Amino acid sequence: xxxxxxxxxxxxxxxxxxxxxxxxxxxxxHLSEGDLQRVWRKRDPHTQLGYAVQMVVxxxxxxxxxxxxxxxxxxxxxxxxxxxxxxxxVAIQRYGEHGDTVRAHAxxxxxxxxxxxxxxxxxxxxxxxxHWLENAxxxxxxxxxxxxxxxxxxxxLLPALSTLDALVGKxxxxxEEHVIAKLYRRVTPAQIRVIDQLMEALEGxxxxxxxxxGRIVGDTVPNLERALKRAENIGSLGFVDVDVSDIPQSWxxxxxxxxxxxxxxxxxxxxxxxxxxxxxxxxxEKSALDDAIDILDRLITGTFINKPKRWAEKxxxxxxxxxxxxxxxxxxxxxxxxxxxxxxxxxxxGEISDPHTxxxxxxxxxxxxxxxxxxxxxxxxxxxxxxxxDSDVDEARRTKALEQYPVLRKLVPLLVNRRxxxxxxxxxxxxxxxxxxxxxxxxxxxxxxDIDTELLKGSWRRLVLGTPGTEPGSVNLQAYAMCVVExxxxxxxxxxxxxPGSSRWKNPKAALLPxxxxxxxxxxxxxxxxxxxxxxxxxxxxxxxxxxxxDRVDSRAPDGGQVVSPDGRLVLPRTAPRTSELxxxxxxxxPTVELPEVVLYVLNHTGGTAxxxxxxxxxxxxxxxxxxxxxxxxxxxxxxxxxxxASDQGKDALTxxxxxxxxxxxxxxxxxxxxxxxxxxxxxxxLTRHNGQPLASVDGVRFAISNPQPQLSIAPxxxxxxxxxxxxTEQAMQLSGRMVSGRASAALEALSVLAAHRPPRRSGxxxxxxxxxxxxxEDIVFGLLTLCGYAYQPTTDQIADHRLWRIDSTAYPxxxxxxKRSINVDLISEFWDDILHLIASIHHGAVSPDDALRILTxxxxxxxxxxxxxxxxxxxKTRHLLNLYDxxxxxxxxEAQSRLHQARHKLAKRICHGIDGPYPEYQxxxxxxxxxxxxxxxxxxxxxxxxxxxxxxxMRAQGMDIPDSEARQLDLLRSDHIxxxxxxxxxxxxxxxxxxxxxxxxALGEAVADxxxxxxxx
Length: 1018
Fold this sequence. Notes:
Elements: H1 4-11, H2 33-40, H3 45-61, H4 73-83, H5 88-96, H6 99-112, H7 118-135, H8 140-153, H9 161-184, H10 189-198, H11 208-211, H12 221-235, H13 249-258, H14 262-266, H15 271-340, E1 344-345, E2 352-353, H16 359-367, H17 372-385, H18 395-401, H19 405-418, E3 422-423, H20 425-442, H21 459-465, H22 477-493, E4 497-498, H23 515-529, H24 535-556, H25 581-589, E5 593-594, H26 595-606, H27 625-637, H28 656-663, H29 668-683, E6 695-704, E7 721-729, E8 734-741, H30 746-756, E9 769-771, H31 778-787, H32 825-830, H33 832-844, H34 849-856, E10 857-858, E11 861-862, H35 864-886, H36 888-912, H37 926-957, H38 964-967, E12 978-979, H39 1004-1012
Parallel strand pairs: 5-12, 6-9
Antiparallel strand pairs: 1-2, 3-4, 6-7, 7-8, 10-11
Helix pairs in contact: 2-3, 3-4, 3-5, 3-6, 7-8, 7-9, 8-9, 9-15, 12-15, 12-19, 13-15, 15-17, 15-18, 15-22, 19-20, 20-22, 23-33, 24-35, 26-27, 26-37, 27-28, 27-37, 29-37, 31-35
């Protein structure tokens, strides 16, 4: 019977024998030759058995178990079978009677196998916990999971669950008290009085602090003014000068949320209340500015860019038939004239002579196409719609935007009077021009000497200075004002202009590690990154590595083969997906199940139910909690809602009230904790365990937004897309998923996500290789990811430029046409210190990869530092391209990982939308369903991995030779055996989930007859 302690361990996801030993863990419990040699040194058979059992127990439990009565019988029989014992259960009982011997053996095994007792490793664990909690307020479940993983990785024996829970409570409280004390020390008595007034809640009314959280919705000038006024009101509370930059944002967010709870509002004169309020105010200062600038961004994008652009495109589309006919006529006539005036070459003598043309013959030639009046009208029609030579394609859109000048007149004073903005050198000219606009707009006339003509690019010069009917030097002030605001907006989106005190619109360069810190900690940080201080050292190693790959590929390239295309790009082969008889047999043998059964099976297998807690972090106190959690997961993940999975037939686990409460437990941190349990379970399955460098792929599902959503930060220049970006492991398990605006770089998203899951370098666990599309600035992305410690391995189709680059002048005969471009190593050396400073800032978490790209580019093009990093990236991109060309296995693994995303998207559409076509348009709140959907998809992948492993092992036991490499090619996202339609039933029929017997091979006669019935032979 399960003890209370064992029940608590099982519910908490602690390693325990209570649920038996999963099939995937038995290989770890096998005795090696070295183990057996140690066992045979013991004298009596029962002692040998007991010693052997004690050797394997920590491999599963992570701790010793000296009570032999609590060891599962199947484990004793498994070990006894390896020792050739006839009755191991009797022998283990006899061994357990000698308590002193059992405990002595446990200490010996601990010493011999390199385990550290918890009492010795406890201090290290507490230091690690302090580090985790210093950076973020980790929840109790997530913190316990981190501790378990760290202890097992460090081979420190696990203590009792109650010991870990005590440490969790102690250090979480200590970390929180430390943060609260730091914040409380920064408020003055006067500020405390302000906080007390803000948090005073009158009867039936929210507190003033709660009221300040209200966001302004709507992209209009009045709403922008209200949003800016809200930001000013929050700033005027008197807390702007309180510096909390050393407090992690996640701690501020957690305390800020607490400041709004009724319990905190009722507290008087308590440091927690004042610290939480300070955190809330500091968060509001940033978010209020963010909200205001988001409105400004959408207002400029919608009013001055998107609407005029749509009008111009409609006009062009409407005029297309007329333009096409006029263009064809003019083109044919001009070609004929050009042909008539071309030099004539005598084919016999080679003499070149001028043609015999005159005005009459040219007129006659033109009139064979149309009369001169018709040709002139056709040319005029073209000039009406086609930009002039000194203009650009935006002229029509910009001309239409001038109709919105009354809106701009109201907007400019709002931006200028508040002086919100700062600028880096590339943005100073535009910001200066913006601040000078009110003076110009008040004047009736302006000359070209009164404006900044350097801002007049493309069609703006014609619109501002070339207005027909005006005297030379005069200025169209409306066009100039529109030009300044558009240029200001571009620089703002590039963060060349920024908003001090904002979060989303801040200066990215300000987030770099301070120069003093970088100078002081440079060597230690470079050691953590594995990068040399000297550029010459790095380039020498890179040169040698690149030469080895070049030499190998050159020596194996076929003579006369098409290695390089005419434009100097490497011609990369494609690798088709593998198909085999094994795939067909596995399909036939997978258990037939319902989708809720899959989720229940996985929750039971991983203990994932325990990840979901109340808002205070306490476990739910319900019976049949697995069924309730599975129902919420299916209801949201399948996009059918909780009403579709609720039951009023007396089943307490599925009542609407309970499901509604359980759904509140599906928060980002609990979803991540459940996700981690699934990922860890997948990593323990031998079938999916990688032998070399693991792979991770990133891709985005893009949704069209037909109408702007006020809660979404649409990307600059009016993007009407958002992307659900997901990161997948080799086991088809989703590490993360989040909604981003526009078309984000999948590779940079991978860098952001994987940095949070990065193992310590000393653990020896390799960083995963990233399979993803770089987007723009491909070479820079290669450099960023490589210097951050990741191997960037996009597929052939994900690489835009297949050209090769070299460092030295070594000749490679078969690749000579592809090695004409040289990498600028001098540029790398010049900016090496700046590059290392940026990489260290990314690794530290001070700068996000997206902000790093803003630092490295200017107006969409690499700056000098960006060019230097791109040169680094070309080294490793060249190596990757050569490996793609030369190694089919290397290529096959990368392309298989990329195909996982395609299969996952297809399965996601079946589960979430019941369709096989494209995703529907975005609906507000859709992202709330995508978290549970990720869990359902992970459950399918894990269920398949478990049962495919069982099927492969069964086939091997029957004598079938299945190499590991072929087994790992099996698709873990197959779903034909899973029913996803009809009424859902949340009951796990464990006995009904079993391997099916495959269909017998048809006899030859049957196969022929079957073929006759189908003309296609299928």
